[in-house]
Design goal:
493 residues; alpha+beta; 29 strands; flat; 11-stranded mixed sheet; Immunoglobulin-like
Amino acid sequence: MIKKWGEDCITMHYSLSLHAQRPCFVACVALNIKATLTNHLLKQPFKSMNIKKYLLSFVLFLLAAIGCLAKNSVSPMTVGNVFVKLNDSQAFAPVKFMNWGDTEVKSIMYTLCNMDTYECMDPVTLNFDTPLAVNEVRKINIPIPVGTSLGKVDLMLHVKEVNGDYNEYSSPITYITRCTVNKVPHKRVLIEDYTALWCQWCPVGMVATEALVREHPDDVVAISIHKGDELATTTAYQNGMLSDYAVNLPAVWCARKDKIAGYDGSGMYESEKNNLTFMNIDVKATWDEKGNNISVTTEVEPCANPVEGDTYAVGYVLTASGLKDDNWLQEANYSDYMSDTYKDAPPEMDFFRDPANYVVYNYYVKGVTFNHVAIVSQGIRNGVANSLPSVLKADEVQTHTTTFDNISQYSLIQDRNKLQVVAILFNTKTNAVENAAVCNISKNGDGSVTSIQHLNKVASSKTSVIYDVMGRKVNNMKTPGVYIVNGKKIVVK
């Protein structure tokens, strides 16, 4: 059964305060709040859903700030974005519940309301097989309505009852952003580590970067940019990037939004990983027959229609790993002879904490292996101009090709098998890093790639049928243009 949520929601909060089982000052405030909400939220049509949501959240925050003792008190914690495939038979949102009361929780009753339609589902009672202990936080997969059209909708989850009585927590709601797509995008987090051999504190940035790559090999794209040392190249990062992002070192940037402090970048990584994107990106790279030039093909696929007016572009970086030279002495100040300051650091820190690796008055370390080092880039500021059309549509794959020529000129490269190509998708309207991808370089086009199924696989499928824009059956997509592959439009630039 579906019903309008407005009046019921307000009355519940009012009743909550009046009927709480412990003395609470909220009751006298709730009377005025009810009248105010009734006059302004219900009688006045709001044009923006966000205004309604934030006003309600603000009122609930005020109630929470007043506070009272609670016996049965449960709060749903922030959920964020949940991706759902179009017309899936079922969908779930991972919601964390915390018991703020002074008794264990055996059951809760909650409702889900659509913030676009103002309709609420029938209340649902959730019985815990194992009671939720005092101060315990537990994640539960909550069923949510499936999406029937592409796009995002905010759902309000409201915990009304705890153990069959009123939920005494003053702000018992959270919001779930349901993102309905044809294909779930693979969001990766770009980590850019600005570093230098002459920087004694830079090893901690290297540790943070390497730890994230190890812990999230499929979801982290790392680039190391050296400044003013033997591993720095004039072709790596142009257009004033060093002056903007590397004024002080170390500087480990997460998606160019914030700098990671210390050796633990997990929190910032998780925050960026959870940021919404509807844009999928994939990259592949191949050597030419002479083994001196690298051909790169990038595919960008919106999983839903982008925000009107937003434009995108792709930038590229060629990186080298496994670089090592005994003449490259990394200045460091982490030997930590007499304390355990870094005992909780990731294992990558052990090398820099070991006094045996220090030389030259214990001020430098020898034998460091440098990974993800930027060699040459294209469009590193905000993408290659005109690399993508100004208007993108859902499920329409766009491709962009480029080359890295004359690789032999880069003497810093030691092992060609440890080269990678990074593709970065920029929102050129907001200057945000939207997504990223990375791949190894193959000789025949079947090397490792990231994310969505790429053109080579589509074209080589035994069941693939390819037509050009005139409806003529063709054997391949070598010529730029629009093609239909198994009923799906693909644009080759």
